[in-house]
Design brief:
This protein is of the alpha+beta class and 227 residues long. The protein contains nine helices and four strands, in the order ααβαβααααβααβ. The protein has a four-stranded mixed β-sheet. The longest helix has 12 residues, at 113-124.
């Protein structure tokens, strides 16, 4: 509710032409109904906290016009292989590691020259400063051994998202890998400020390539209503 109140305070500053077309609703999504159908629904950072993904997606499907689109973000389960965390151990203990590995390998496809050139251009823009104090990282906590999030959101792989979509009368038209990690994310705390982020941002050149689904902690799916 606080987030909606903040949004309302900003909407009130917009021109009437724009603000009259914005409606804020504070209600569980599965209870939401509207007399109008929508061209596009955008859903970021939500599906991981939904108990039943199929019911959730089917409900959104009913809110869309024919051939309407849903743009939705998911925590990337494939990234558990890369992240060196308790999630990595969970996949190994649950004997799911090989399945994730096989899916990940399928995304290693030839890259477009345009993406490669943009990546090289991004790399040349990196700007780092040297560390003056050799003990800069001495007191940094590198890995929190007992870290457990207060709520562990569900994760999906792109292949799992395709299966969920089919069962919910959607068809995946595009994937985008977002929040890329060019190196082990644990190094973020070990390197000087902004080094890790700059290096990772260079990978945005490949966000429309399948390879982006390998190193991104989140991916966005564009789903088209099929029924």
């Amino acid at each position: 509710k606080k987030m909606l109140n903040l949004a309302k305070s900003k909407i009130d500053k917009l021109s009437n032409k724009i603000s009259k077309n914005i409606i804020l609703v504070h209600k569980p999504i599965l209870e939401y109904k509207d007399e109008h159908l929508f061209d596009i629904c955008i859903c970021m950072g939500v599906i991981g906290y939904i108990d039943n993904e199929i019911n959730f997606l089917k409900h959104i499907n009913k809110l869309l016009k024919k051939n309407g689109n849903l743009i939705i973000s998911s925590r990337n389960r494939l990234f558990n292989i890369q992240s060196l965390s308790f999630r990595t151990l969970n996949e190994i203990n649950n004997k799911k590691f090989k399945k994730l590995y096989d899916e990940m390998k399928s995304y290693y496809k030839p890259l477009k020259n345009q993406s490669i050139n943009l990546f090289l251009k991004n790399i040349t823009k990196l700007n780092f400063t040297k560390i003056k104090n050799k003990n800069n990282n001495k007191n940094k906590i590198i890995l929190k051994k007992n870290y457990l999030p207060f709520t562990e959101p569900k994760q999906q792989t792109p292949l799992e998202m395709i299966k969920l979509s089919k069962r919910s009368n959607f068809k995946v038209s595009k994937f985008y890998g977002v929040h890329p990690h060019i190196i082990d994310p644990s190094l973020n705390k070990m390197l000087p400020e902004k080094v890790f982020n700059q290096m990772s941002d260079a990978l945005t050149a490949f966000e429309e390539e399948k390879i982006s689904l390998v190193w991104s902690s989140v991916f966005i799916s564009v789903l088209k209503k099929s029924k």
